[in-house]
Specification:
By secondary structure, the protein is α+β, with helices and mostly antiparallel strands. The protein has six helices and four strands. The longest helix has 13 residues. It is globular.
Length: about 130
């Protein structure tokens, strides 16, 4: 079974390690602050339930892969806050602020490589399978 690679964007066998992994991880290390209000929220039961609800709404697909790249990706999914919790805590559970993305697109969105406006437009598209 193959999966899309977060580090190079190509497909690899599921248990294969990408040669670009070490280079990528050193280049994009994050300095996270732990124990913030956002971190406490991410560990809560209400977030786990909301995350499941959003993934069901999005048919367990990466919305970016499906709507932009026209491919189906159901692996390594997470739910992304279009407007980060740190910027607007009140939108943390708003369905209009949450979108299901694969790891690659989630990381690109976090870095600003995928604009918030694009994610909002994708969110308004209907998923027809």
């Amino acid at each position: 079974m193959k999966k899309s690679c977060v580090y190079c964007g190509k497909s690899h066998e599921y248990n294969e390690t990408c040669p670009k992994r070490a280079e990528y991880r050193n280049k994009y290390k994050y300095d996270y602050k732990r124990d913030s209000l956002a971190d406490k929220f991410r560990n809560s039961r209400i977030w786990r339930e909301k995350r499941s609800e959003i993934q069901r709404r999005d048919c367990y697909l990466c919305r970016y892969c499906f709507c932009v790249e026209k491919k189906i990706n159901t692996s390594d999914l997470s739910v992304h806050h279009i407007i980060p919790i740190e910027k607007n805590y009140n939108l943390r559970l708003d369905n209009g602020n949450l979108i299901t993305l694969c790891r690659l697109h989630h990381e690109q969105a976090e870095k600003g490589l995928i604009k918030s406006e694009n994610l909002r437009n994708i969110l308004h598209l209907q998923i027809k399978i």
